[in-house]
Design goal:
Elements (H helix, E strand, L loop, with lengths): L1 H56 L8 H24 L1 E3 L6 E3 L19
Antiparallel strand pairs: 1-2
Length: 121
């Protein structure tokens, strides 16, 4: 009978140990998830600060960060590509709202702004 009592006690102790290990593992996983979420939040805040800095200093004649110049060049390249895309489509863009319409349109079909169809660029 004593053997069965010791065996029962050993099984109960092992069960408590496994239960505690599962709680520890669960707690560790939750903490790791919380840490990762905070790190992601910080990275997003860094990116937002960078965007705010760029917006505030993109037109400065001198900058300590060459990335500002690189971003400006990328925006200029994108604008040129969008212009070429509109030309290929035979369309133009409303200067007021940005909607696309036919090259010969006199008014914007989206916002109603008057367009100069004889506009020279």
């Amino acid at each position: 009978m004593e053997l069965w009592n010791k065996l029962g006690e050993t099984i109960a102790t092992a069960g408590r140990d496994v239960s505690q290990m599962a709680k520890d593992l669960s707690g560790t996983a939750k903490l790791n998830l919380d840490i990762r979420a905070k790190e992601d939040f910080i990275q997003k805040q860094y990116a937002e600060i960078g965007k705010m800095y760029y917006d505030a200093h993109k037109d400065d004649p001198e900058t300590p960060y060459e990335q500002i110049l690189t971003i400006n060049e990328a925006f200029a390249a994108i604008a040129q590509m969008k212009k070429e895309l509109l030309e290929i489509k035979g369309a133009k863009q409303c200067p007021k709202c940005g909607a696309q319409m036919a090259e010969d349109a006199g008014f914007c079909s989206s916002c109603g702004a008057k367009l100069d169809i004889f506009e020279e660029e």
